[in-house]
Amino acid sequence: MERDFTRREASEEMQERPSRPFQKNATSLQIDWKRFGEDLRHARAARGLTYRQFGALTGVTFSTLARLESSYLPCNAETFMTLAVEMGRDPLAYAIRANAAAVTTLAREIDAA
Questions:
Q1: What percent of the chain has pLDDT over 70?
Q2: Can you tell me the distance from the alpha carbon of 99 to that of 32, in angstroms, rounded to the nearest whole number?
């Protein structure tokens, strides 16, 4: 019989796992990282916040914010959700925008049924 993890053990195990960016494959949604980075930059600048100030507010490091804004590289799901919500954006909107063709096809299939 397996024993339940204690909260501390579960936390330690999660810290040992590397964070994974959203993967580009057939079973996961793709994110429009370019648009996300641009929106992030505009939201932060509109509030008059530096990378460090916005990082302190969101718990995201200065370097991660700078990388996301300038190079449009993906981040892990937790960071993505935190930043999208802090910007007042619906995280799903980025996935829908990046997967517009799939959404359109799905809508047609539903309408045809």
A1: 65
A2: 9
